[in-house]
């Protein structure tokens, strides 16, 4: 049986879909499962045990006829499609794919997700419910042992906390200030490791500690987070990964996003410690330190 799974991203959404990916593989142990995703996550998910093949969706514009023809070739020939992106774009793929048996929200699909409230539940529960409507009743805790990289060159201390000070550059209201992260670091009683992109190195310099910004791939980042006693950070992808790996997390949310819909989630389906302020510039350091386990 040839099966296609569609999931584009972003990183946090990819991580929240890990249990759904594992459930689809468990439900189709002998199936040939292909993932259609975007370029940043092809290498990561190509190493997972859930997919036999990974295709990159270039997401062509409507006027890009060669791109649309290539996408059509990518979508054709499947017996069953699980659209876990369930966006307007991915729903349009239903017709382009030749209207196969389809789990999602595309009008006329055979296995629709019927929950009229689907836009008001957390991503994890929404995906579980979608799969239930498609006949997959059990969503397992995913085995993430494959998600590991060599971090021996980082000379990390035996006990440490990870700080995640970054977020989308155009969303400053989602960022707890670096100066406040530095105060949190001083109150932890543990060495701190700062992770993020190369563009967040200035934040790491302000905070202090071991600066790994721009130095880790997905696999190394997972090993750093797995070894941490605690992770504290903004609403961004690495915090989702930390929670999925079972690391204790304190997640900081502004009014820009709703943790009831998008919070990081640990493997057992529980919830991290969540602190909220309309603007994270105004969240007191004392409140973060009071939430320490």
| Biggest beta sheet attributes | 6 strands, parallel
* Average pLDDT, all residues: 96
Query: Which regions are unreliable across 5 or more consecutive residues at pLDDT < 50?
Result: none
Q: Oligomer, anyone? A: single chain
- Structural class category: alpha/beta
- Binned, the helix content reads 25-40%
**Widest sheet, order of strands:** 3-2-1-4-5-6
Please outline the helices and strands.
Elements: E1 2-6, H1 11-16, H2 18-27, E2 32-37, H3 39-46, E3 53-56, H4 65-75, E4 80-83, H5 88-96, E5 101-104, E6 111-112, H6 123-133, E7 161-164, H7 178-188, E8 192-194, H8 201-207, E9 210-211, H9 218-226, E10 230-234, H10 237-244, E11 249-253, H11 259-262, E12 273-276, H12 285-290
Parallel strand pairs: 1-2, 1-4, 2-3, 4-5, 5-6, 7-8, 7-10, 8-9, 10-11, 11-12
Structural summary, described in words:
This protein is an alpha/beta fold and 293 residues long. It contains 12 helices and 12 strands. Helix 2 packs parallel to helix 6 and helix 7 packs across helix 8. The longest helix has 11 residues.
């Amino acid at each position: 049986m040839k099966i296609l799974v569609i999931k584009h991203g972003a990183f946090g959404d990819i991580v929240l879909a890990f249990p759904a990916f594992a459930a689809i593989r468990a439900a189709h142990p002998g199936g040939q499962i292909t993932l259609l995703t975007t370029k940043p996550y092809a290498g990561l998910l190509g190493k997972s045990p859930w997919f036999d093949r990974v295709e990159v969706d270039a997401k062509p514009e409507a006027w890009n006829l060669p791109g649309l023809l290539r996408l059509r070739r990518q979508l054709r020939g499947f017996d069953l499609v699980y659209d876990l992106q369930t966006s307007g774009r991915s729903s349009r793929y239903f017709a382009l794919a030749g209207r196969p048996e389809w789990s999602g929200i595309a009008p006329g699909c055979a296995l629709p997700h019927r929950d009229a409230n689907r836009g008001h539940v957390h991503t994890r529960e929404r995906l579980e419910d979608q799969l239930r409507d498609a006949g997959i009743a059990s969503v397992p805790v995913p085995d993430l042992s494959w998600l590991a990289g060599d971090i021996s060159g980082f000379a990390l201390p035996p006990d440490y906390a990870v700080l995640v000070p970054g977020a989308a550059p155009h969303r400053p209201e989602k960022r707890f200030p670096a100066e406040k992260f530095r105060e949190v670091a001083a109150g932890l009683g543990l060495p701190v490791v700062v992770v993020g992109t190369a563009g967040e190195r200035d934040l790491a310099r302000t905070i202090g500690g071991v600066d790994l910004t721009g130095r880790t791939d997905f696999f190394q980042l997972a090993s750093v987070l797995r070894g941490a006693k605690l992770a504290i950070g903004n609403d961004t992808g690495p915090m989702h990964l930390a929670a999925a790996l079972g690391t204790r997390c304190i997640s900081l949310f502004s009014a820009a996003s709703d943790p009831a819909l998008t919070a990081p989630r640990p493997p057992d389906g529980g919830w991290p410690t969540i602190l909220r302020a309309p603007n994270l510039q105004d969240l007191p350091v004392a409140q973060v330190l009071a939430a320490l386990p």
